[in-house]
């Protein structure tokens, strides 16, 4: 038996508080942190580790009994079969963090039965946060002191869709998708911000064919689907979570798909 919409909303509020605690640690070293390579060659910074520690501590207090799978210790975390769990990326877009362009996020999501059903994406340097709860809608806060407001996907312009794509991981398959779908505009953005731009009606589609991990996408998918969008595997089926090794395949994140 899963969580009710009210329980999911309460967990999303807890995720927001945990993400805010992580953001404080990230910003304290923003512009001065350096990195070292992980085993897979991706960068790891002091900010990643500080954010991980802050989130895990906060969730242990607010969400006891729910397994937490974080990028920084996923190999050591076991999730009971069929159980709900929390996916965490303490610092998504480490390359953007190191380049100081502001396009990095903190991602926290609740996964039930293989689907993200509540999630928070917080962009510390941009002063924005996005929250989505399946069955209760999606909201954005910021920039700055701007309060929470509802968001939803938009209907694409018949003259052509607007796409968002990775700033750091663009590939030939993405270019082929964009060419095949008559894209009228393209914006390159880092981290899970791409899901959020589609969710708030600033773009129509986010195709991703390169490698990602489940913690990269779960919170953004929760926000987008709560805002009326969808995330599908490239072949058209559901984009599921809880896979062995936590590795994703290609996907297409749509707002409202254009008419055929």
Automatic annotation (TrEMBL):
Mg(2+) 2 binds at residues 89, 92, 216. Mg(2+) 1 binds at residues 71, 89, 91. Its EC number is 3.1.3.7. Keywords: Cell inner membrane, Cell membrane, Hydrolase, Magnesium, Membrane, Metal-binding. GO terms for molecular function: 3'(2'),5'-bisphosphate nucleotidase activity. It catalyses: adenosine 3',5'-bisphosphate + H2O = AMP + phosphate. Substrate binds at residues 71, 91-94, 216. It comes from the Bacteria. Its main location: membrane. Belongs to the inositol monophosphatase superfamily. CysQ family. Converts adenosine-3',5'-bisphosphate (PAP) to AMP. PANTHER family: 3'(2'),5'-BISPHOSPHATE NUCLEOTIDASE 1 (PTHR43028). This is 3'(2'),5'-bisphosphate nucleotidase CysQ. The lineage of its organism: Bacteria, Pseudomonadati, Pseudomonadota, Alphaproteobacteria, Acetobacterales. The gene is cysQ.
């Amino acid at each position: 038996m899963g969580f009710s919409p009210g329980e999911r909303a309460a967990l999303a509020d807890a995720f927001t508080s945990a993400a805010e605690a992580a953001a404080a640690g990230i910003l304290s070293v923003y512009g001065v942190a350096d990195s070292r390579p992980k085993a897979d060659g991706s960068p790891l910074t002091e900010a990643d580790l500080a954010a991980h520690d802050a989130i895990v501590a906060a969730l242990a207090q607010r969400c006891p009994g729910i397994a937490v799978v974080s990028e920084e210790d996923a190999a050591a975390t076991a999730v009971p079969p069929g159980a709900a769990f929390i996916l965490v990326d303490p610092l998504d877009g480490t390359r953007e963090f190191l380049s100081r362009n502001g396009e990095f996020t903190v991602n926290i999501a609740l996964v039930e039965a293989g689907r993200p059903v509540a999630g928070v994406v917080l962009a510390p340097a941009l002063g924005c946060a996005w929250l989505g709860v399946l069955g209760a809608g999606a909201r954005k806060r910021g920039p700055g002191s701007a309060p929470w407001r509802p968001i939803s996907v938009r209907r694409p312009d018949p003259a052509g869709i607007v796409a968002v794509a990775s700033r750091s991981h663009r590939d030939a398959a993405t270019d082929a998708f964009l060419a095949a779908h008559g894209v009228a505009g393209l914006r390159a953005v880092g981290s899970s911000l791409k899901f959020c731009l589609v969710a708030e009606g600033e773009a129509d589609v986010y195709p991703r064919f390169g490698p990602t991990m489940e913690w990269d996408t779960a919170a953004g998918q929760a926000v987008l689907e709560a805002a009326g969008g969808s995330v599908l595997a490239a072949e058209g089926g559901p984009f599921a979570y809880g896979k062995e090794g936590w590795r994703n395949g290609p996907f297409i994140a749509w707002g409202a798909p254009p008419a055929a």
